[in-house]
Amino acid sequence: MIVNNRCFNVCFIFRPFRVPILTGCHSSIPLWWASLCDKKILNQPLEKPDFFRVAELFSLKDLFDARVHLGHKKGCRHRLMEPYLYGCRLDHDIIDLDQTMEHLQLALNFTAHIAYRGGIILFVSRRRQFGHLVETTAKDCGEYAHTRYWQGGLLTNANIQYGPGVRLPDLIIFLSTLNNVFQQHVGIRDAAKMNIPTVGVVDSNCNPSLVTYPVPGNDDTPAAVELYCRLFKMTINRAKDRRKQMELLHGLSADARERRHV
Amino acid sequence: MAGLCRVVSGLQYRVRLSSRFLRSSFSSDSGPAEGPVSGFAAAFDQQEVLRRETQSSAAGPKASSSGPELSFAALLRRSPLIQMGPAKDAVVVGRVFRVVRDDLYIDFGGKFHCVCQRPAGADGLQPGSRVRLRLQDMELTARFLGASTDTTLLEAQAVLLGPKEAGSGGEHHQND
Question: Which GO terms describe its molecular function (chain A) (predicted)?
């Protein structure tokens, strides 16, 4: 899938591509060869639409069995979620799973590309029912999670709150875009301000407009949230394993492998 | 015409109709069509196709419904939630997944769980036990004065009827 050009161009401004430092490398790889390999590693996934084959990870039946199509009542509906709804049955909104399939595939593909390039992924959810699940998911795929109170300047004031030169996440995944008082999570607006792409599961009472890759679906049932966590974990692990394979294939040594900026 | 006037199933009607016309006109079996089929010939072809489809679907309903090509619309229409109809006073089977002192958190296959008080004598209701419920509402919401959207409690409301005895199937059952 051609990744969203806007996000990558902007990432390029803030985190320029650097040639990997070959310190401590015992084999004599010339610098030009290393940079060529690196370019090949980075550009090869962009040639195929579904390089990481994320479409195989889930099916319509899986989404249906996890009750992803169940939305809130008609009175809770957000006006901007109406295009994603299949209909309303006895006052309960039903989310269109055909659209959810496409959006989820786009979101997983984007997550895989970010993980492949060594980006930092932050899982955010303010649902206390799923806080532990989200934290363990992040731990299992080697990424980060924030399921507690979101301080105002976490992203926008990071240099002052956490010291200069802090690296911000390259992708933020919202397992629920609402906070505890049913307002939009501050992180969505702040991520948009800091040009950080977001993936968010939007229920029928959420506002999908600022989310880069919205995934219309249920965010209240444990079965659905467990499915999302499992899918994201599998995607990220798959992408990281693929990166290790590609590096071995193109002959870069283990010492030169470090967390790269793109 | 007596055969046409009798109220029979569509399958038998179509067979009789096509067989009558086969006997009366000899132009239907002319092999592949030379040009665009028109009028009666098109109708006849369509009826043949429909007849074959009904025969094959009557023969093997399981093959098509368990196949991977079931669309979201078909899945939704056949799901127990839709087949149940209005949630008011529907009797369902749920599963207790958490117990906090006297409160039982019961999941019955809807979007939300419901919370019921443990009845007086039923100490055998542990996490994992199945219970019968009479649903009142799938989601407790209300529009308060001055609000633009409903306020939701993120819970369903149901009345606990009692534990589900093993072997008493045939109740309306929701899958997790």
Answer: structural constituent of ribosome
Q: B27 to chain A, minimum CA–CA distance in Å?
A: 46
The domain ranges of chain B are: 91-163
- Kindly state the tokens that stand for A242: 């693929």
Q: Extract the tokens encoding A211.
A: 């989310």
Distance from the Cα of residue B1 to its chain's centroid: 38
The answer to whether the beta carbons of residues B95 and B125 sit under 8 Å apart is no
Distance, in Å, from the CA atom of A156 to the CA atom of A186, rounded to the nearest integer, reads 11
Architecture of domain A30-261: 3-Layer(aba) Sandwich (3.40)
Judge whether A128 is closer than 8 Å to chain B, CB to CB: no
Q: Flag whether residue A83 sits within 8 Å of chain B, measured between CB atoms.
A: no
Give yes or no for a contact between A19 and A90, defined as CB atoms under 8 angstroms apart: no
- The helices-and-strands tally (H runs, E runs) of chain A is 8, 8
Give the model confidence (pLDDT) of B54-89 as tens digits: 776 665 544 444 556 789 999 999 999 999 999 999
Q: What is the ipTM of this complex?
A: 0.79
Using CB atoms, pick whichever of A75, A76, A94 lies closest to residue B76.
A94
Cα A38 to chain centroid, rounded: 23
Q: Does A147 touch chain B (CB under 8 A)?
A: no
Question: Which of 89-108 (A) contact B at CB < 8 A?
Answer: 89-90, 92, 94, 96-98
Q: End-to-end distance of chain A based on CA atoms, in angstroms?
A: 18
